[in-house]
């Protein structure tokens, strides 16, 4: 991805983790290259590249690298678990390491390659204070005053989690869009619907703020596992089956670890003519 000359355009990678897909741009040595307008144009699956989120790799003084996250509509995201795993997979190969550290809006996080080949990332401690999620007013995070009795958990971005009898029966496009911009969430929210399918196993579907329906959401899986444990539905190690694949979450003393598959789909270069529209 870093071999193309800047005069030839902007190199990027396309990766996905359990169907949660990303454009990844390496801006190290270039300065920041992304803008809200460029991200929104790239996120268009017909006129751009298309993705759920964009991750930008930057230089870091006290870690292997830094990461910024963007949603498909050009808004900023504070965290993105599957993008973190995908970039970690790439950077471990670049650096010749089996573990990396990186800085995000959440602070310095760590990722590693497990013996089974899956990439695991520590997403940090869950945010369980209403101001930190954030909510617009004080509320019991495990029983929000909303129809359906959802829970709220912050994982660097806000999550509203509904535990339902059958996640397959939820009208995700209608219900997720309604909840995303509820006044209780001043910065909008991701919305998860989960049903218990076995001991410590959940079926989860997700609506992501600024993007819509996605096949998987790593921070959402973490938030859902935390809420499920606090509700007494599961232990601290939870397997979640999402539309795009399976993720494993382990809420440990040092943070919420999330593991799953990654895939490097292709490399590309954004043309100078395309980039010139956003100069």
Query: Roughly what fraction of the amino acids lie in strands?
Result: 35-45%
**What is the third-level CATH name, the topology of the largest domain?**
Diaminopimelate Epimerase, Chain A, domain 1
The overall pLDDT, averaged over residues, is 95
Low-pLDDT stretches are 1-6
Principal-axis shape equals globular
Helix content: 10-25%
Count of domain modules = 2
> Can you identify the CATH class of the largest domain?
Alpha Beta
The CATH homologous superfamily of the largest domain is termed: Diaminopimelate Epimerase, Chain A, domain 1
The SSE string, one letter per element, is EEHEEEHEEEEEHEEEHEEEEH
The first-to-last residue Cα distance is 21 Å
Which structural class is indicated by helix and strand composition? alpha+beta
Task: Please identify, by name, the CATH architecture of the largest domain.
Answer: Roll
Largest sheet: 17 strands, mixed
How many strands?
A: 17
Radius of gyration (CA) equals 18 Å
